[in-house]
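Suppose you are handed a protein chain with no further information: no name, no annotation, nothing but its sequence. What can you learn? This example shows the usual starting point.
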Amino acid sequence: METSLPLDILTPPLDDGLALASPSVETRPGFDFILHIGMAAPRKYYTMETCAHRDGYVSRDEAGESFEHDTYWWDTYKSPEVLRPGFDVEDDAGWREERLIISLLTLSAPRKKGVDVRPSNDAGRYLCDFIYYTSLVEYWRRDPDVKAPAMFLHVPGRIEDMDIETGRKVALGLIRAMVGSARRKKEEKEGVGGLI
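A reasonable first move is to predict its three-dimensional structure. Written in structure tokens, the prediction is:
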């Protein structure tokens, strides 16, 4: 089942200082949805990360540096230690259904079996967790009551063609789930019943 979704893929500019420039608080991020994708090489399953962490980045990068003693987010924004996205993939009944759909969508993948897609509350306290927190804190600092329409999908470290195809289907399924969740919330808020 092929479905076409119009997607704008945005990447941050790499000019010195430009990507790090902090937008004014009055400016709201202009994204309907944000989906980060990272590789968790040792895992054999996909995870939808349910939170991101401000602190605890002790792993060192290739240059031997870490954010172990960094306090920028706390000093500048007094941001919480843990931030969560606007999607509740663990408790929301709609998300349990969406996870099943994501798994079923992958049945036509080359492996011909459903894929293990599960929630996780540990994005790794490394680059993935840091990037995820950065997205979530940009929404939080503008309005702590508004949760970011963001998700982080960790994919297994397999690189065969069939694995890439399965990952593509999981990512598309997750995008559909994000859209469906936002639509359900909007209908609940507006008092509209029925199916999506």
